[in-house]
Design goal:
By secondary structure, the chain is of the alpha/beta class. It folds into 2 domains: 159 residues, 3-Layer(aba) Sandwich (Rossmann fold); 92 residues, GMP Synthetase, Chain A, domain 3. 45% of the residues lie in helices and 13% in strands. It has 12 helices and 7 strands. The protein starts with a helix and ends with a helix.
Length: 274
């Protein structure tokens, strides 16, 4: 069984620090680590910087309490990195390098000798993710990948452990909403977070407010929820609220939300080279 394989893999690590976002992947990994090593040998570390929304912070707190492991927030400042702010195709590489350096220092502080692990799964390898290269270079282990566990299997294991994140949709960092080449600022990150909060009045499934050039907001939702945003009252409210936040144009993507859609804008030659 995958559960036994994962727990057995983690049991070979003496002390564990889990890079913990509060999403289904890191939550299930944290629960498995607790099963393998017990409360005294596992801690959870959450990088809490400008790309981590308040709703994500709340979710992380709630999940850590449910799992029952020591949890620490690590204050980060991604927007101090020139390579991150410039927002080129390699943004995630530089960001991961920085974040996991900060998490590694925190791990040594809170649980000396702990090995830092993270929750990428096999399905994550199919997308363009330069951040994975940074993790490999730093020697950060990804036990779900090592055990060959895919996303739906992560969810099934989360159900077996009765985690409330089992059906939780993906919620990547706020920077992933900004098109490459558009500078990342704290103001833009905060604006995107507020805009998605406005949209939550109308939809409950996966949601992204993408920021393009000229302060254009492009809204992505699922096939089932596109219609919820097309009636006159919803359009008027959304347009008014998002324009008041500082967007100059507000648009609705008629293609349903897909993970990694912005990667279409990265030249194919560059992806092959990487």
């Amino acid at each position: 069984m995958l559960q036994e394989k994962l727990v057995q893999t983690l049991s070979k690590i003496n002390k564990i620090a889990v890079a913990f976002s509060g999403g289904v992947d890191s939550s299930m990994l944290a629960r498995a680590a607790k099963e393998a090593r017990g409360i005294g040998n596992v801690i959870l570390l959450t990088a809490a910087g400008p790309t981590f929304s308040q709703s994500q912070r709340q979710t992380a707190e709630e999940q850590a309490q449910q799992i029952g492991l020591p949890h620490f927030f690590v204050t980060t400042s991604e927007t101090s990195l020139p390579e991150f702010v410039a927002n080129g195709p390699e943004r995630c590489y530089y960001c991961k390098k920085y974040l996991f350096s900060e998490l590694s220092e925190a791990a040594e502080l809170h649980l000396p000798g702990a090995l830092l692990i993270e929750g990428s799964n096999v399905d994550d390898l199919s997308d363009y993710r330069p951040g994975m290269r940074a993790l490999e270079e730093m020697g950060i282990r990804s036990p779900l990948v090592e055990c060959g566990i895919r996303k739906e299997e992560v969810r099934e294991l989360a159900r077996q452990w009765e985690l409330t994140t089992a059906e939780q949709p993906p919620s990547p960092c706020l920077a992933s909403r900004i098109v490459n080449g558009v500078e990342i600022t704290k103001e833009r990150l905060e604006r995107i977070e507020k805009a998605e909060k406005v949209l939550r009045q109308f939809v409950s499934g996966p949601l992204r407010v993408r920021l393009h050039n000229d302060e254009l907001a492009r809204i992505e939702v699922t096939e089932e929820e596109i219609v919820k945003l097309t009636n006159k009252d919803a359009r008027a409210t959304i347009n008014k609220e998002l324009m008041s936040l500082g967007f100059r144009f507000v648009s609705l993507d008629l293609e349903p939300h897909q993970q990694g859609k912005l990667n279409r804008l990265i030249p194919l030659a560059q992806k092959i080279e990487e």
